[in-house]
Amino acid sequence: MFRISAILVILLSLNSCKSQQTFKKEVQIAFIADAHLQDIYAKFEDSDYKGIQNPVTGEYANIRTMNAQLHSTRIFNENYFAFLEALNDIVKRGIKQVVLPGDFSDDGQPVHVRGLRKILNEYSQKYGISFFVTTGNHDVVKPFAQDAVKTDFLGKDGKEQIISSSPNNFSKSKSELEPIITADIKNWGYKETIQEMRDFGFFPKKTDLYWETPFSDYTYEQYNFEKAQNESVLEKRKYLIKNTNLSLPDASYLVEPVNGIWLLAIDANAYVPNEKLSGQSNNPNDFSGANIGYNNVLIYKSHLINWVKKVASEAKQRGKILIAFSHYPLVEFNNNNASSELEQLFGANKMQLSRVPSEEVAQQFADAGIQVHFGGHMHINDTGIRTTAKGNTLFNIQTPSLAAYMPAYKILTIHSDSDLEVETIVIGKVAKFNSLLPFYEQEYAHLKEINSKNIWNKDILKAKDYAAFTNWHLKELVRLRFLPEDFPADFLKSIEKLSGKDLLEIGKDTKEITKDLKENSLVFSEFESWTGFDMIFDFYRLKNADELAIPEIGKKRLKEYELVCRQLKKSNDAKLILWAEIFLKIMFGQPSDHFKIDLKNSKIDNLSVK
């Protein structure tokens, strides 16, 4: 009898070990957000158009104009090379798990999604890398496929080239060159995009230890590949849109690629239905885009909260380490809690404030059980932390874009079930990043010939490396777009052309200025070497890159900015006071370059060399 009881105890113990596995082996996962891959060397399947020929290399390429790049928050062309550089860096480091948290394509065009699939397949087959992707607002622009056009491709003799999926969605009178018509430039919907990218997490693979969706009807113990495959079809992965009789696909999934690690891919694309619907099935025009993110998830995809709760509870019960990722931030991004001041100074519709997740978003997902979440969307480097009244802490890690300043990706090293390390890898040196410059020389010459207004600064073509190129991109973006669109004209006039010395003297506290200069080993005359525009540009550099921008700006300049802000806060100008408060908050945030997360004690420690 004793022997039977002992055997039962051992069997029960073994069963318990199976459901509560303890993580033992160190694992690394790379995160590449917002690659915005445009396959510049792709061939259209239904057109003979090859693009334009590089006068130096002889290669044909389909690229966008430099003018288009410098008015966009993302680079369209050179990021193709940066993406390959990042993948090669990941290969050298021996990392086998790579996550792409959305906006993996330019705009979900067939030609670019196919190009990305080919690249990921190549790295999978050559180096044994497993890729896991989720949808962003640029991958599935609308839930269903739709015609699209880009009017700003670069064409012959530096002119703009229209490329469209239909001859009816652009003005022919504005065309400098004969438009190119190809279905390869349309925007794919869920059905097409997910099918093309099916091997990268959206559907189960035989090598997965576990895989499910919010709609799966099996348990962990019941799991097998056949069941998962049967439940993975898109028709079974739909949710009903609030206040309508319409249902849309949800591409969320949970996968266990490595024993003990659960990757939770949240499809946070929430499409808001129009007040008046067409009555047609699969009409993309019945919905808005999904760029707002989690604020609309709470309204239109509330089923995800319950699923996250279930997954987090099971992960804890089974001893799994749960790492969540999605395209959108779960915590106020980058502004270091300066959103209120930004809204007061710039307005609610400026500075991308509409994309800031509400506090309720962070609270709900933290209480649902998410501790670590990697997001993208904003093209910024940042770490946000929220602890709820219930004592649950969420670490939201914003991954920079390779298509913007500062180009980088993140590496998560899981040392144990509670000890995580995050490192940011800047992709500053990129092979062939300058191979497209001859095209831009032709574009610049054409713009000069037609006396184009607000022509871009040709010095960007002298950038020594890719990091410097993205720095120029941001500087021109600030000059050509952000200043005229975001900054109140009267405020801009009061700061843009003033020297740092002028700004320092606005507070008029001469005694304190002298004291501060002495204590910080600063010289009054050195404040004359920079202007308000330089301060605004560095504001954007800090906003985008956070700690990564500090070496480029320099600690001395940052100290000068700090002194200026302290003086501006003493002025009689409410807008200058707000600007100072915003700038100071942007300067001081959570660690975002290289840091350690202690999940057990909900702590974060900076590992960056000071």
Give the structure's gist in a few sentences.
The chain has 610 residues and is an alpha/beta fold. Helices cover 36% and strands 16% of the residues.
Keywords:
610 residues; 21 strands; alpha/beta; disordered N terminus; 7-stranded mixed β-sheet
| Shape field | globular
Number of helices: 20
Q: Report mean pLDDT, rounded to a whole number.
A: 94
Over all CA atoms, what is the radius of gyration? Answer: 26 Å
Largest sheet: 7 strands, mixed
Q: What are the segments in which pLDDT stays under 50 over at least 5 consecutive residues?
A: 1-21
Beta strand count: 21
Strand content: 15-25%
Structural class of the helices, strands and pairings? alpha/beta
Calculate the terminal CA-CA distance, rounded to whole Å: 66 Å
Helix content: 25-40%
Strand order of the largest sheet: 5-4-1-18-19-20-21
Describe the protein's topology.
Elements: H1 2-19, E1 27-31, E2 52-53, E3 60-61, H2 66-69, H3 79-93, E4 97-101, H4 110-127, E5 130-134, E6 149-154, E7 160-164, E8 180-181, H5 190-196, H6 198-202, E9 210-212, H7 225-231, E10 238-240, E11 247-249, E12 253-258, E13 261-266, H8 294-300, H9 303-318, E14 321-326, H10 339-346, H11 359-368, E15 372-375, E16 382-387, E17 393-398, E18 408-414, E19 419-426, H12 437-449, H13 466-486, H14 489-495, H15 500-504, H16 510-519, H17 532-545, H18 550-553, H19 555-568, H20 574-587, E20 594-598, E21 603-606
Parallel strand pairs: 1-4, 4-5, 7-8, 13-14, 14-15, 15-17
Antiparallel strand pairs: 1-18, 2-3, 6-7, 9-12, 10-11, 12-13, 16-17, 18-19, 19-20, 20-21
Helix pairs in contact: 9-11, 10-20, 13-17, 19-20
